[in-house]
Amino acid sequence: MIMAELPAFSPVPFWDVNMQQIDYERNARFVVEKVLNYGLWTDIKELLRFYGPDRVKEEALQTVYLKKKTLSFCCAIFDLRPEQFKCYTRQQSSPVRWNY
């Protein structure tokens, strides 16, 4: 799949990386994770336009980290259960408390 145009994401989800150096095809999972977790609504719409809903769904299912609200959002828009997401199945069953 050859992508001639670059997506028009805001810099909000990519505050910690140089957006000019992102390979949007090779690093699709990274892009999907960043936009779903930290992007604006316009970024999410651009993500779906750029990759298509099937690719976004595929990458979201395999991502290692999604915020709880993001996971719920993905379940709603893709008609999935949390157990289908890799990030959900990898969570600790009982989080370790910090020793202050």
Write up what this structure looks like.
It contains 5 helices and no strands. By secondary structure, it is mainly α. It has a domain of about 70 residues. Helix 1 packs across helix 3 and helix 2 crosses helix 3. The chain is globular and about 45 Å long. The mean pLDDT is about 90.
Helical run tally: 5
Using DSSP, what is the number of strands? Answer: 0
Strand content: under 5%
**Helical percentage:** 40-55%
Domain DUF6922: 9-59
Organism: Nibrella viscosa
Protein name: DUF6922 domain-containing protein
Quick take:
The chain has 100 residues and is mostly helical. The protein has a domain at 23-89.
List descriptors.
100 residues; mainly alpha; single chain
Question: How are the SSEs placed, and which strands pair?
Answer:
Blueprint: H1 28-38, H2 41-51, H3 53-62, H4 68-78, H5 86-89
